[in-house]
Amino acid sequence: MRTPLAALTVVAALLAAGSASAQARPPGRLEVGGGVGAMGAIHFASVPALEIAPGGKTLTLFQSQSGLETTPAVVARLGIRIASRWWAESAFGLGSTNLVTDITHDRETGAATVSEPVTHYAVEGGLGLRLRGASPGRLKPFLGAGGGYLREVHDGQMFVDTGWSAYAGGGIHYALKQAATGAVKGLGIRVDARAAFAGGGTSLDGDVHVAPAAGASVFVRF
Amino acid sequence: MSTAVRARLCLLTIAVMLFSHARPALAYLKFGVDVGGHQVILRWAATPVRYFVSDPGIPSVSATQFQAAVARAFATWEAVPSATVSYTFGGYTASLPGQDDGRSTLGFMSEPSLDRVLASTSYMVDDATGELLESDIFFNSAFSWSVAENGEPNKWDLQTIALHEIGHFSGLGHSALGETEGASGQRHPIGVAAVMFPIALGTGDISLRTLQPDDIAGISDLYPSDHFRSDTGSVSGRVTKNGAGVYGAHVAVFDPARGEMVGNFTLSTNGQFSVSGLSPGPHVIRVEPIDDADIESFFDISDPVDVNFSVKFYDKIVNVPSGGDSGAITIAVQAK
Q1: In a 3-state reduction of DSSP, which class is residue B106?
Q2: Which of A21, A60, B124, B239 lies 20 to 30 angstroms, CA to CA, from B34?
């Protein structure tokens, strides 16, 4: 998928890190975080180089299979609590991958692989929900979903694709530190996994693609 | 009118005969005319281009049927939305193709000695200005022809062949986007990706009544609409072997999103090429020697065309920007 930041934009803000009770409102309304993540590879539809053969048939000169390699990414996010268990957040992500086309079955030469680097930028917004009654100690599970805008810059900045992204998933928020008073109300780590969807962008076949994504980040709550 | 010189092209055979001053020019295979040491692209300066049809038909195709078939072929080129070329039927004439009468004439002529020439397009060019003054197309009545809607076995489809010839009539040369089997003089195509490929598919075949992306890019490059240049882009660069430029290498640019191919050749001893009329986005580039038709179908026999290298895919995906060029790339090929 082409939404690197989707992997990390998560809903950590929803976690009630400082609460002894799963039902308690977490301290602080604002959360700032950053981390790393990765999204799985995406394969586009295979596209043949076809020629017209006698009798209206076709001849395949070669076959092409394009896709995006696994995308590592960094992300920065900002969340705000909007209810005791609900959080809204926005995120900016930056990822780097390769667009790869594998050539096979060429009539005159062997297989070949051609590629180019692609840089992903994404701005996303989403909602998160802290799960009720399932918080062993400092671990707080959550669910989240959202979507956003995607911009993909090809090698040499010669060409730019734009599209949309969406995600749904969940994770665990682990509170390292929490305080009821003071400017900083909490500090923690979040790990999340999600299904990341993308449409437009570098999708050579025009389809919507989904890929697994995972990430880890650190957050500070105010 | 200053001295006019006629250059005859034999098409749909394996050979193209070109006068020395009608040579491949930059982009696709457009023709260039040498005017005072400068190359002028061969094209009609004003449209619609008026054409006439010879009165004499042949037993299987009347002049009226002939005119209807070529009109459909002309209309196919006119329908390209990114090109502005247009044609108009001027009427029937007793003149035959090849007569220097100032009229662009299409018609049948019997040339049994040209046993591999289905049809041929000739030009009259003002060699002082490079202006295209007249272009005639003759269809060789030594072959059997059909104007049937669905084609006929053992007969050549007039509309299909006319579509190819009208490409030449408009200024396009041959495309090398096709595969053949057999040796020189006995080649037959097994796959074709351009109407402008120099060898016809076969009798009864009507598959190439439709223009292909390479044809569309070519005619649009010659007669661009207002938005063609800004809506499409180009790839340019060099093909080299052992550090030196390769002349006459065929460069096919493949769009992995759409499956479309557009081709051109390196047209200098420096190995330079330019392929325009491409959809914006990532492209894959394949370089091959001319080995699916005789070199004379594309180049003058005296040109130093190099066919001693292996097919090569450029190892990077090349991005085509809207209204711009990819930036020069260098593709190194290796001798066989």
Answers
A1: strand
A2: B239
* Assigned CATH topology for domain B4-220: Collagenase (Catalytic Domain) (3.40.390)
* The listed CATH number (3.90.550.10, 2.30.250.10, 2.60.40.10, 2.60.40.1120) that belongs to domain B228-333: 2.60.40.10
Distances B48 to A93, B44, B101, B266 between C-alpha atoms, Å: 54, 9, 19, 32
Dist. CA B43–CA B135, nearest whole Å: 10
Amino acid identity for residue B104 in this structure: S
Q: Helix or strand or coil: residue B168? A: helix
Contact A49 B259 (CB under 8 A): yes
Identify from B313, B326, B334 which residue to disrupt to test chain A contact, counting A C-beta atoms within 10 A and taking the largest count. Answer: B313
Phi-psi region of B259 (alpha: psi -120 to 50; beta: other; left: phi over 0): left
Question: Residue B155 in 3-state DSSP?
Answer: coil
The string over B240-265, giving b where at least 16 C-beta atoms fall within 10 Å of a residue's C-beta and e elsewhere, is bbeeebbbbbbbbbbbbbeebbbbbb
CA distance B24 to B18: 10
Most confident segment among B3-7, B25-29, B207-211, B293-297? B207-211
Per-residue pLDDT at A16 exceeds 50: no
Q: Which residue of B has its CA nearest to A100?
A: B317
Token pair 């408009």 is found at: B170
- Per-residue model confidence as pLDDT tens digits over B110-144: 999 998 899 999 999 888 888 899 999 999 999 99
Q: Are A101 and A45 in contact (CB under 8 A)?
A: no
pLDDT in tens, A141-180: 999 999 999 999 998 777 899 999 999 999 999 999 988 8
Domains of chain A: 4-42+62-221 (2.40.160.20)
DSSP bridge partners of A16: none
What is the interface pTM, i.e. ipTM, of the complex?
Answer: 0.89
CB atoms within 10 A of CB A208: 14
Domain ranges of chain B: 4-220, 228-333
Unique residue bearing structure tokens 């008026």: B50
Best B236, B254, B292 member to test A by mutation, with max A CBs in 10 Å, is B254
Residues in CB range of A157: below 8 A, 6 or more apart: none
The tokens for B186 are 């006995």
